[in-house]
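Q: Give me the 3D complex with calcium ion.
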Amino acid sequence: MRSILIVEDESSIRSFVVINLKRAGYNIYEAESGEEALVTLAANPDIRLALLDLMLPGMDGFELCRQIRAANPGMGIIMLTARTQEVDKVTGLMMGADDYVTKPFSPTELIARVDALFRRIGGEDDAERTEIRGGPFTLNTRNRTLTKNGELVKVTQVEYAIMKTFMENPGKALPREEIMSLVWGREDFGDLKIVDVNIRRLRLKIEEDTARPKYINTVWGYGYKWESNFSGGLDSR
Ligand code: CA
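A: Here is the predicted complex, encoded as structure tokens.
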């Protein structure tokens, strides 16, 4: 059974989440604080996804997210934020969260986010192809890993999914809406900032100079484009 950890100090919200996710067929672990969450995660390696409330007593959701991500790049992480915490959303994503849900949320919305992220983590990659290459990058679709010049780049599952989308579409300008739909499985395009923030984070990991990105180009007012001819760009400099 697919296991999820919910970290939330408010018991009413926690039980609301637990009841609904159990009903959706998930196995649930609960923690009331970040400290308790880290212990629970260490003891239960079957946990593949964590729902983190931002405002927690002691260690906050940001720090918890950072620590989980440092120890486990493959963990799916969804932040629970209040509607007014616009800046917090961005910070959370930069700390390594894959997605967020704003409070108050409906069970349907939460389950849709969780299901979509599990699809990403679960790996629905095509079995016949195991490698996608582009410039210095190789994506191993069996291990879901990324290397640059043969060295492992630590990416989250969502960053991996973005890389795969780009590398399967070299030289093609992709609208942000399409990236959101392909990577997050979301059709509600209200907040495309999640795409921008994840790409900003990915650039920090793969670009040599994020001020002058060489691999992921911004197409102003539209979206992003994966460069198809890196060596040409290098030679012309
Ligand atoms: Ca709280």
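A quick observation: The two ends are 53 Å apart (CA to CA).
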